[in-house]
Amino acid sequence: xxxxxxxxxxxxxxxxxxxxxxxxxxxxxxxxxxxxxxxxxxxxxxxxxxxxxxxxxxxxxxxxxxxxxxxxxxxxxxxxxxxxxxxxxxxxxxxxxxxxxxxxxxxxxxxxxxxxxxxxxxxxxxxxxxxxxxxxxxxxxxxxxxxxxxxxxxxxxxxxxxxxxxxxxxxxxxxxxxxxxxxxxxxxxxxxxxxxxxxxxxxxxxxxxxxxxxxxxxxxxxxxxxxxxxxxxxxxxxxxxxxxxxxxxxxxxxxxxxxxxxxxxxxxxxxxxxxxxxxxxxxxxxxxxxxxxxxxxxxxxxxxxxxxxxxxxxxxxxxxxxxxxxxxxxxxxxxxxxxxxxxxxxxxxxxxxxxxxxxxxxxxxxxxxxxxxxxxxxxxxxxxxxxxxxxxxxxxxxxxxxxxxxxxxxxxxxxxxxxxxxxxxxxxxxxxxxxxxxxxxxxxxxxxxxxxxx
Length: 454
Fold this sequence. Notes:
The structure is a single chain. This protein is α/β, with parallel strands linked by helices. It folds into 3 domains: 1-44; 67-276, Rossmann fold; 281-453, Ribosomal Protein S5, domain 2, CATH 3.30.230. 24% of the residues lie in helices and 25% in strands. The strands form 6 sheets. It has a 9-stranded mixed β-sheet with strand order 8-7-9-10-6-11-12-13-14, with helices on both faces. It has a 4-stranded mixed β-sheet with strand order 15-16-18-17. It has a 3-stranded antiparallel β-sheet with strand order 3-2-4, with no helix packed on it. Strand 11 (234-240) and strand 12 (246-254) form a beta hairpin. It starts with a strand and ends with a helix.
């Protein structure tokens, strides 16, 4: 006889952790009073004799049904690996107001205009259909084959899918969709898990691409159970500073393409526009040589971006001079200031205020920008401008050494394409230098300061 095993009877309402007995504190998320009893479900291990889709050899499987379909939005296709895959389920997450709904509405319009054989369905649980149309008129996202519906019930949403028969369905957002057959409020762990499972089942059965919009928590992670990211095929993160027009799209998980690429968009009142070459956004427009500025090449995924670091050093009468950083890692800048003071003998930094920032609101987190930050601060402290058409990159250690970084060849090719003629790079990187740019290899920070600033 086949034994039947009952599933755990208690579940955490915050993270979905399950246990066979009640406890006061969840062992997964450490929350108090969130473990509640749920209905016991009998799970049978009896094998089924009626197979709906018998197994095939790998040579017999038709892979043409899973080919990429370009959306018409270049940066989105770049991040996804080539476009939308039929039957794929994509989770799009981002902070409120970053532009998720605008991007997906423009995507729906572009797909409906490009692939006219099947319609596109946009389901909204946060706005009315009239409000979505107003935004579509403002962003010029009106298309003949685009259908709108305001639904917050799972059954009604699935009914709309059966009625329209779309090639692409966008649900904005999965936290607003709920099922009357499941206990819990919309946005709860149980509701999100069941709603996502139902949408995935409909997408696979109809070979329909589905995009789910997900909310994020205060720390930037996707709201709901962690299982949600495992269920879907692609997880995209839409990022951007509220005070900047630049928006970045990353693929955190992608079963059909790479996860080391990034898409750049320019957000304006007319919607989002793809940026094939966003380097000009992060460089100041001034043509004069000013002390305290240095250009560097940073990598966002596989894409090299040109960024400018600016520094200002001023005398201070306070016992503890102020340090202000914007767009960079503050502890790392403090470390570079200490290295400049001790290894490069810039003792004036001890009693000076230092302000370090990036141009255009770009955030630089990789250590490859250390050398550019150090040169900008030293240039400001010595009041000597750096040469024109010059850039630098490399990681600086506590001993003052300059270490190699990844993607040196790609960085130098981008610098040569943009017209830079001189570069300081870590030792051993000169063999990757393209034509038109002069490379100087250095092994330590004092050596770089002596070479550039004397």
